[in-house]
Amino acid sequence: MSMFFETIRMSLASLLHNKMRTFLTVLGVIIGIMSIISLMTLVQGATDMVGEQLASAGGNKLTISTFGDQSKAGLTEKDLEQFEVLHNVDYVSANVTGKLTVSGGGESTNGVMVKGIDGNYYRGSTDVLLAGRLLYPTDLESQTTVAMITSGLSEKLFGEMSPIGHTVQTNGISFTIVGVLDSMSPSVGFGDMLFVPRTTASNALNFGLIKAMDVYLLDTEISSETQGLVEDTLFTIFNENENAYSVFDMQIFMDMMGEIMGTMNQLLVGIAAISLLVGGIGIMNMMLVSVSERTNEIGLRKALGAKPQSILMQFVLESVFISMLGGIVGTILGIAGSFAVGAILQVTPTVTFGVIALAFGFSAIVGLVFGIVPARRASMLNPIDALRSN
Amino acid sequence: MSESLLTMTNVNKQYIMGDVVFQALTDINFSVEKGEFVSILGPSGSGKSTLMNILGCLDIASSGDYELTGSNIKAMTENQLADIRNKKIGFVFQNFQLLKKQTALDNVMLPLIYSGVSLAKRRERARTMLIEVGLEDKIMSRPNQLSGGQQQRVSIARALVTNPDIILADEPTGALDQKTGAQIMDLFQQLNKEGKTVIMITHDKKIALKASRVMHIVDGRMQKYVEGVE
Ligand SMILES: Nc1ncnc2c1ncn2[C@@H]1O[C@H](COP(=O)(O)OP(=O)(O)OP(=O)(O)O)[C@@H](O)[C@H]1O
Ligand SMILES: [Mg+2]
After folding, report:
1. What residues form DSSP beta bridges with A214?
2. In the 3-class helix/strand/coil scheme, how is A211-222 assigned residue by residue?
3. Torsions phi, psi of B127, nearest 5?
4. Maximum Cα–Cα distance across chain B
5. Of A255, A353, B152, B162, which one has the fewest beta carbons inside 10 Å?
6. What is the 3-state secondary structure (H, E, C) of B210-223?
7. Phi, psi (5° rounding) for residue A95?
């Protein structure tokens, strides 16, 4: 054991003695590890971000669109109840939409998306309520004429003034505004929107039957099973016409995304690994030079009782040290770099213990692999020849 | 009669270069007893270093037997030879062979690394050895801060530090002026008086005659030195 520490001491001393050369050699590994680390953390960060966005858009739901046919144009309020009782269904949220001209505050805007929603609409969303309140189930039951307005539309109609309590008119119906929703909310996009009770929209605004519905799941692991149950129910409702509806599982899409990002990650890391290979060749080159420069020293050590394996270990360790040193510096620079680039790209890099462990493992392996040839050469030197060499 | 430390029986050494065979040593029969101070005298190219390499287990005889403290060197593995060099033999080289980047202390500690001695013990023993060869004020000096005689003292300290059975010195005064050379010879004589076995190789008759027994080697053949025969 004392021999092992002694070998470490000798390796470090020799590396420190040739600071400039060591630094230049280490640079190759630094660049390699730095690119691997920064690429991996950035791609992982981007993957996590996309994943989060998709999840907030509904990773735990099945999205149903109905196209209807002559016999049945869409879903009724009563049809919805059939889905609520299915196994693994948490709740459903259905809506009806139309594009209408909305006026109020003396102004008027056309092409406004008017959405008839229910009390569950906001349970699965991350939309931001700026003022007032959401729609209540009682609004649906009594088909009240209240509405929520997006902040962008409110500004167009009412300017700086709070729209709460004021009314807007559309399709000849007057709605009292009870809430303001941030236009930047995920489900809003960048358009102007007006949210009203679904029942009011279906009837008073003549939007008719339900064309879109989200079925929220308790357990996403068994989403395909639930999808089967939902499809069976739709099949019955639409008189066995499969073309009248479609069911989209967000989870499948997210899994696919994850796979694509994973492949991309591997590809990028593969490319970065090539630069590490170049770094490794640099180490091998330096070690070969070092062995031939120190032929005399090796011969002396052997004459004084060093076994081939001690010499081998001395040089392998030296090479592993350089490489690991590059690994450490490269990891630090790589993380710093990925945060710098991430700040520009607005991506938060994901730094995991695994990535760091991988970088260290990689650099150790590079040192080992590229150090073994020069070290073997050193260990096999004939002490008589080696002693003569100065 | 005291016990025999090493014995060479019919040792031959050939160097083979392509299809040229060079006979460097021929029928060497030679033994050294414990506590002796033997010098091997011979002109340049006579095979002194070749003999020293075999005595020091750095090389193996082409034929014949070499027994060192009872074991036959022919049967040894490379690792066993390394152990023998480490524990039984102390080398003193003509050109000192010190590590230039390291202090006298580090240089003297070097063989002990390969004996598995702990750092603290290595330091202590190397320091004791350096004091013994008269270098107490040069312990932390590097070779380029030392005179030739001092460097050779460091290398003698290094040869002694493992407490070996034999000190093997190849032209230990070859790189030194006469006065310093004489001082180094005094040191060897003193070590011999303290009980160390010393085998010294030299081409200098005056130096050789300081030993208690002088062997003569000419063209790879060895015999007892007789005054007047060159
Ligand atoms: N590795 C080798 N290959 C071939 N020939 C060798 C080798 N080593 C030594 N010789 C030859 O063997 C002979 C003896 O060499 P050696 O080095 O033993 O002489 P030496 O007595 O030590 O001489 P010097 O006093 O000059 O050091 C020389 O002729 C030399 O050329
Ligand atoms: Mg010689």
Report:
1. A63, A93
2. CEEEEEECCHHH
3. -65, -45
4. 54
5. A353
6. CCCEEEEEECCEEE
7. -145, 160
Question: Atom 14, ligand 1: which residue's CA is nearest?
Answer: B47
* Nearest-CB residue to A304 (from B86, B101, B117): B86
HSE-up (13 A, CA, CB side) for residue B11: 29
Ramachandran bin of A143, using left for φ above 0, alpha for ψ from -120 to 50, beta for the remaining angles: left
Decide: B61 and B12 in contact? Cβ < 8 Å: yes
> How many whole angstroms separate alpha carbon B42 and alpha carbon B46?
6
Q: Which string of DSSP letters, residue by residue, matches A285-323?
A: HHHHHHHHHTHHHHHHHHHTT--HHHHHHHHHHHHHHHH
pLDDT tens digits along B200-230: 999 999 999 999 999 999 999 998 887 765 5
Q: What angle do CA B2, B77, B164 make, to 5 degrees?
A: 35
| Cα-based angle A241, A243, A249 (whole degrees, multiple of 5) | 115
Q: Taking residues A251-273, what's their average pLDDT?
A: 82
Radius of gyration of chain B (CA): 17
Q: Find the DSSP H helices in B143-177.
A: 148-160
d(CA B129, CA B136): 9
Q: One-letter amino acid identity for A53?
A: Q
CA atoms within 13 A on the CB side of A14: 24
The average confidence (pLDDT) of chain A is: 86
- Whether the full predicted model's pTM is greater than 0.80, yes or no, is no
Ligand 1 neighbourhood includes B44 CB (under 6 angstroms): yes
How open is the CA angle A347-A350-A356, to the nearest 5 degrees?
140
User: Residue A300's pLDDT band (boundaries 50, 70, 90)?
Assistant: very high
- Residue B41 is inside which H or E element, if any? strand B37-41
Q: Is A65 helix (H, G, I), strand (E, B) or coil?
A: strand
ipTM of this predicted structure: 0.94
Q: In terms of Cα–Cα distance, which of A316, A286, A310 is closest to A298?
A: A310
Nearest CB to A306 within list B91, B97, B114: B114
- Helices in chain B by DSSP H: which ranges? 48-55, 78-87, 104-113, 119-132, 148-160, 178-193, 205-208
A388 touches chain B (CB under 8 A): no
- B48 CB less than 6 Å from ligand 1? yes
**Half-sphere exposure in the Cβ direction for A21 (13 Å, CA):** 15
Token duo for residue B82: 């390394």
DSSP B3: P
Distance from residue A388's CA to the centre of ligand 1 (Å): 11
